Amino acid sequence: MIEGLLIGLTTALSVTNILMVIGGCLIGTFIGMLPGLGPMSIIAIMIPIAITLGDPTAALILLAGVYYGAIFGGSTSSILLNAPGVAGTVATSFDGYPMAKRGEAGKALTIAAVASFAGGTIGAILLMIFAPALSTVALLFHSAEYFALMVVGLSAIAAFAGTGQVAKALMMTLLGLIMATVGEGALFNMPRFTMGMMDLQSGFSFITLAMAMFALPEAMFLVLNPRRADTPEEKSKEGKITGLRFSRAEGRAMLPVIGRQSVQGFFIGVLPGAGATIASFLGYAVERNLASTEEQKEFGKGSVKGLAAPETANNAACTGSFVPLLTLGIPGSGTTAILLGALIALNVTPGPRLMLDAPEIFWAVIISMYIGNLVLLVLNLPLIPYIAKILSIPRNYLIPFILFFTLMGAYIGQNNSTELLILVGFGIVATILRFADYPLAPLLIGFILGRMLEDNFSRSMQLYDGASFVWERPMTLGLLGLAVVLVLLPSYRKRRAAKRAEGVADGD
Amino acid sequence: MALDRWIALVFVTICFVYGYAAYFTMDQLLPPFMQRNPIWPSTFPKVLSVLGILVGSVVLLGLEKPDPNADDSAPEINYRRLHEYKLGQALGLLALMAAYALLLRPLGFILATIGFLSLGAIILGERKFHILIPVAALAAGVVWYLVQQVLGIFLSPLPSFL
Q1: Which of A135, A138, A396, A426 sees the fewest Cβ atoms within 10 Å?
Q2: B102 touches chain A (CB under 8 A)
Q3: What is d(CA A201, CA B38) in angstroms, rounded to the nearest whole number?
């Protein structure tokens, strides 16, 4: 391993390759800020440039830099505008946006940058140590386990079921799941619930729904109630970027979260198909359950832990997704599939022999991950005050621009103006739902996980010719058990706390 | 009846329609070889519609009592007094977005975007046209250039008759 590291260091530390890392991170961050352009599309756009480089190491380093940059850029729009452009950063907006609304946009962005850095770096270390061994474990995961993993991911909605709101959160999740069944399923090849409309053939698009659920109602609320933006304590902070740093106590609270989530996120990222989205939702759910009752109340209202958890997890998962790509040649996500295409075009075949045939590529990519994460941190920390200034643009200009970018996000993905009408329609529905105090995040979680859930469930049903896989596969049963615990734990803890408060001995 | 229960009523209605479609209209279309599968395209929707009706009814009938200890943060906007807020502006912007969706192709990206950004600001009360129009034009130009030329995603810039 030491030998490999040295090879990697000499390759990655050449001037061109360092320039590639810096360039990739910059491009990724800036394009990633635009909602509608996720890492997948940005990498696809960059492929022609990468191929003309000719050198596979430089090309892979550039594309990996773009990948991290895009994930970080995506969190910026989640935090500042409540407009998550990528599914993996939806969980970031749960606590990041309330924080920005409190006037702590600078701090939120700093936490995101630090958490991403830690997640990415720890992920890279784990990748280095575990890559060869993990490739065999990833193959043990079948569709039954994926189905169970999606169920665990859905348990994240328990976090939004506030007091007396469980039925409402469940209702929104079901609505999300129902919406995910519109269009052609991957397995059935038969249009469902399209009402004969061609535009619905491929279902609703994620980005349209994310914009309609989060960004549009937020903009409408800002329009309806102009004073919303400047309550007394916020007014004093307006224009000034206060609290760029987080306090020592907050740092100490974040530390275990970052530690746990970089490991958990990495291992989820290793599993093909799970990826950054599940990692971020699960990270959020797990951290909320581990937090004390006092801290749990903060979740969803701008909790430091609630922001650090998904940010760490999604970056660690991005790194983790390189394990199956580099060791088995199996792309675990859309993004790594595009990377695989680029590698093959450059005459490199990832797989078990990559480490033997071209060790310099394997190790240089790992080294460039460290450098990339460092570059992202160094590059972004000084930029944060300027990025956060976006929020101090006069309201008359800011709101039309937010609306314009949500429209653009929905449009450039599909190049279809019907999508824009769908966006406006759902935006109105989402605003009304918010009037009635329905949580909207569960709807989006249900929508994102719904299709994967159904596909994996149907696949395992077909393989086992029935639902016997639930008890025949111990790993599936274990994961489903975990989901039950995650859903029931909060109410159990609450009841126990209530009993304690009454002074009734509980036996523990 | 409060708004949240009206919404639950709408949701339950949607679930009934959805369930009807899943139970009575989907299975006839299934080719015979797929009927041997343990799971059909309608299976998941059938389960969802039943669950949806159950959960929706819980909200509709108000079975779940809100926790008395809840720190009931007042809703950000009281919908019963909606007319006291800037409803006109909000509706104006929504109409403008719909108009943008319909006019994007016929007018071309540049013209439609300049129109959208400036009218949006005018609806919100901006009156400094000498700043507004150049800013809108600049933004439209820059975004078009970035998307079309740098990223290579096609956006027709000019009206369709040109």
Answers
A1: A396
A2: yes
A3: 25
Q: Cα(A430)–Cα(A96) distance, rounded to whole angstroms?
A: 20
Structure tokens at A388: 């956060």
DSSP 8-state code for residue A101? I
* Per-position DSSP letters for A8-60, written without gaps between them: HHHHHTSHHHHHHHHHHHHHHHHHHHSTT--HHHHHHHHHHHHHHH--HHHHH
What does the alpha-carbon distance between residue A371 and residue A183 come to, in Å, rounded to a whole number?
42
Distance CA B100, CA B122 (A): 15
Residue B69: pLDDT band with limits 50, 70, 90: low
Three-state secondary-structure class, residue A184 = strand
Using 50, 70 and 90 to split pLDDT, how confident is the model at B54?
Answer: very high
Which tokens is A219 given?
A: 């903009």
Rounded (10°) CA dihedral A177, A155, A323, A71? 70
| Cβ-nearest to A396 among B14, B85, B121 | B121
B70/A contact by beta carbon, under 8 A = yes
Query: Helix A304-320 to helix A105-140 angle, to the nearest 10 degrees?
Result: 40
User: Which residues does chain B have within 8 Å of residue A417's beta carbon, measured at their own beta carbons?
Assistant: 101-102, 104-105
Interface check for B8 against chain A (CB to CB < 8 A): the answer is: yes
Test B8 with A462 for CB contact under 8 angstroms.
Answer: no
- The answer to whether the CB of A373 falls within 8 A of the CB of A124 is yes
Work out the minimum CA distance from B93 to partner chain A, whole angstroms.
Answer: 8
pLDDT of residue A231: 44
> Could A417 and B101 be called an inter-chain contact, meaning their C-beta atoms sit closer than 8 Å?
yes
B33 touches chain A (CB under 8 A): no
Contacts of A228 in chain B (CB under 8 A): 76
Chain A residues closer than 8 Å to B155 by CB:
412
Per-residue pLDDT, A274: 64
CA distances from B47 to B18, B19, B40 (A): 11, 9, 12
